[in-house]
Amino acid sequence: MKLIECPRDAMQGWTEFIPTETKTEYLNALLRVGFDTLDFGSFVSPKAIPQLRDTAEVLAGLDLSSTRTKLLAIVANLRGAETALGYSEIQYIGFPLSVSETFQQRNTNKSIAEALTEVADMQNRCEQGGKTLVVYLSMGFGNPYGDPWNPAVLGEFTEKLAALGVRVVALSDTIGASTPETIIPPFRELIPAFPNIEFGAHLHTTPTTWREKVDAAFEAGCRRFDGALGGIGGCPMAADQLTGNMATENLVTYLEAAGVPTGLHMEAFREAQRLSQRVFVGH
């Protein structure tokens, strides 16, 4: 079981700029919890995501001396990937590849075909640089634009990624549209069909639908889940009203009830929860 904590996703749409020292303090608290991976920042245009313009400064202040947690940075193009590749502290580079043509243009200002060409280049550079590329299939459970979606479409995208050598693919519910009926089929079909790929679930949700979504993905075989403390965040490029991230505390509650060990340091977890209130309510 892998839990990926995503403060980057929680912060990116926050209107008020969170000071660099506050971000750093919060991320250091999360590093003490023992998550598998911390999605800590992104190397994108500050015009697009002004909240994360200080990712390099935040990275410089992280205490990685006594954590097992790996770092993941999101990029929107090859230039961002090249920047991320220059940091030895970063193990994972994440790229959002949309199954919706409209959203790919809206999110990264390129077509799906152009994005796939960049993914191929990123994958080669990650292999050469000793890093792992994580591809998020965004709008993976539907979109508001009328673009085609179904499990077969996800399969076609995954087949292309597998041919490139991509080893981690996260099916992503960018707008909170997923239901158990749409979550179960793709995970159930893709996991056995692509044994060399680790599939993750990046599910945005409302506070009342989280359990059914987690349960569906878990029962379908997913063992990699993204979350954010407090369920804060979402995708600012997707809609005017943000649907929150999967709340990490709900994931932990679910796994504990299922008898699945999380390996988290719970005292540090509770301290990070307290700190998150200060980060997102007032600093």
Structural account:
- The chain is of the alpha/beta class and 283 residues long.
- The chain contains eleven helices and eight strands.
- The protein has one domain: Aldolase class I (TIM Barrel, Alpha-Beta Barrel).
- An eight-stranded parallel β-sheet has the order 7-6-5-4-3-2-1-8.
- β3, α4 and β4 form a beta-alpha-beta unit.
- The chain is globular, with a radius of gyration of 17 Å.
- The two termini are 33 Å apart.
- Belongs to the HMG-CoA lyase family.
- One of its GO terms (biological process) is ketone body biosynthetic process.
- One of its GO terms (molecular function) is metal ion binding.
- Keywords: Lyase, Metal-binding.
Q: Give me the count of strands.
A: 8
- CATH fold call: TIM Barrel
Share of helical residues = 40-55%
Strand content: 15-25%
Second CATH tier, the architecture: Alpha-Beta Barrel
Largest sheet: 8 strands, parallel
Order of helices and strands: EHHEHEHEHHEHEHEHEHH
Query: What number of domains?
Result: 1
GO molecular function, one term: hydroxymethylglutaryl-CoA lyase activity
Pfam family, one: HMGL-like
Protein name: Hydroxymethylglutaryl-CoA lyase
InterPro entries: Aldolase_TIM (IPR013785), HMGL (IPR043594), PYR_CT (IPR000891)
